[in-house]
Specification:
Elements (H helix, E strand, L loop, with lengths): L10 E3 L4 E4 L8 E4 L5 H9 L1 H16 L14 H15 L3
Antiparallel strand pairs: 1-2, 2-3
Helix pairs in contact: 2-3
Length: about 100
């Protein structure tokens, strides 16, 4: 996985659906603007992106280290599927 080149997190939700950087050197810079019927919900999801990306990277790394996580297994969704989805999301987020 490559080094992320996006605006550093954390991000926060501002007024009017704006997503703002919440850390220096980009503090309060506009990262994105959510629009549409669910503007506030979309803004919260977008603002969580840096944290979600780091969580996915941590999950993948934990799998490589052989750490057993308490993941429910079902007929259609196993740890391997979860890791594959995490890898796909990380690649998408990092432009891969």
């Amino acid at each position: 996985m490559s080094k992320s080149m996006h605006t550093p997190g954390p991000w926060k939700v501002g007024d009017f659906g704006l997503i703002l950087a919440d850390a220096n050197p980009c503090k309060d810079a506009i990262v994105a603007q959510a629009e549409g019927l669910n503007k506030e919900e979309n803004a919260r999801l977008i603002a969580a992106a840096p944290v979600l990306l780091e969580a996915l990277k941590g999950m993948i790394e934990a799998g490589h280290l052989g750490v057993k996580l308490n993941v429910r297994k079902s007929e259609h969704y196993s740890w391997m599927n979860a890791e594959a989805c995490a890898r796909k999301a990380v690649l998408q987020a990092e432009g891969g």
